[in-house]
Write a structure and sequence with these properties.
Elements: H1 7-59, H2 64-70, E1 75-87, E2 89-100, E3 111-120, E4 126-135, H3 138-144, E5 149-150, E6 157-159, E7 178-186, E8 197-200, H4 202-209, H5 216-221, H6 231-236
Parallel strand pairs: 6-7
Antiparallel strand pairs: 1-2, 1-4, 2-3, 3-8, 4-7, 5-8
């Protein structure tokens, strides 16, 4: 048996132990880092999709009312894809982004949100929607900074035109907290945004800005974080005169 008391052997064993410990730490941190990178990539894709939705709806002559309302909005929520399907028992949901207009008219970087809702009623078929919601007052925006807010209960919602030739479910009312505009593909009967929950997606906020303190408030109000990948989205929204970003 080797003499472990010898100084050179003790040094060798110490180095081996340190290497083993480092390897164990790397194995523990590799998976979370890879997972965070994956979330950041998904978040970037969502920002690109949101830019396409904003460009499409704001330029669509069938959504001229959105163009007018968005010019006066305090903030805008964009959900590139809301999935809704079911028979009798239905559910809907999707991920989106919130951008806030600053005092100079410029738009903040995006904060990530999840729209979650469930409804029971006469529901047959499936639906995929692009959804844009304009936030019309400071009180509604302040409510969205909380951990969760419920549409129709804590915030009043009016529904704008839904695609070409479609009638609005309610008359668009600028006194409402939120005005929703949707381009729908597919058929769906029953259900609405009332009762839907808006929930900050903290994991995506942290991953996209690579910053644990990234919260909706620090992103859209304090503007402490920035990601140039979102510039196209910011520029797609109504700009103050003489400003391009």
């Amino acid at each position: 048996m080797p003499d472990l008391r010898h100084p050179s052997r003790r040094r060798f064993l110490g180095m081996a132990s340190a290497v083993a410990t480092s390897g164990a730490l790397l194995s523990l941190t590799a998976t979370p880092t890879a997972a965070q990178d994956g979330v950041a990539q998904e978040a970037s894709q969502l920002v690109d999709q949101s830019a396409l939705t904003a460009e499409s709806l704001l330029r669509d002559p069938n959504f001229s009312e959105l163009q007018s309302v968005a010019g006066r909005a305090k903030a805008i929520l964009i959900f590139p894809q809301i999935l809704k399907a079911g028979f009798i028992l239905g559910a809907e949901g999707g991920r989106g982004v919130l951008l806030v207009r600053g005092g100079d008219g410029s738009w903040s970087p995006p904060a990530f949100y999840t729209l979650a809702a469930g409804s029971i009623g006469l529901q047959i078929g499936g639906q995929v929607s692009e959804l844009v919601m304009t936030v019309m007052n400071d009180g509604a925006l302040a409510a969205m900074m909380r951990n969760k807010v419920q549409l129709g209960a804590e915030l009043s919602v009016a529904v704008g035109p839904v695609g070409k030739g479609a009638e609005a479910a309610t008359t668009t009312n600028l006194n409402s907290d939120v005005i929703a505009f949707s381009k729908t593909v597919g058929l769906f009967g029953g259900g609405a945004l009332e009762g839907a929950g808006l929930i900050p997606n903290h994991a995506w906020n942290r991953a996209y800005y690579n910053a644990p303190p990234a919260t909706p408030e620090t992103i859209v109000l304090e503007r402490r974080f920035y990601n140039m990948q979102a510039d196209r989205l910011r520029q797609a929204l109504p700009q103050p005169q003489g400003q391009s970003s």
